[in-house]
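Quick note —
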Amino acid sequence: MGWFNYYGLAVILLIMVPNILCAAFDKEAFNGICKDKQLNLTEQIGRYGCFVLMIFNIPYTYLGFWFTGALTVYLTVCGALIAIYCIGWAVFWKKRSLLRAVWLSVTPSVIFLFCGIIIVNIPLIVFSVIFSVAHITLSCRNCNNNK
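Predicted structure written out below.
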């Protein structure tokens, strides 16, 4: 894999589809209630760091697939996780619950972390941890504040 990761781009595009559809049809879905500016900023830094690093491999910061058959594992696991994410969107489309918040925040977090580990992309691993902690916390706080 070179500097451009086509598979990573496909993963990003696929996990963005339900988000875009939700934003188009449910205007209230992304109204964040948690006003913790530092947490919101941390989440955005993690999110966009993951987006960029899923698509672009910065030389000398990643090793690439580290075992035979890793590409197959990468595609299979990412495909399964994307399917789980989309199922979550379908099941929880209009529902506001803690289960929805956890499902829709943990799944992309796992996707980013898994991708970082499977291609040994150190910056992606770091940004995915930052994103995971902030996104899951923010999602749960927004759910709890919404009640």
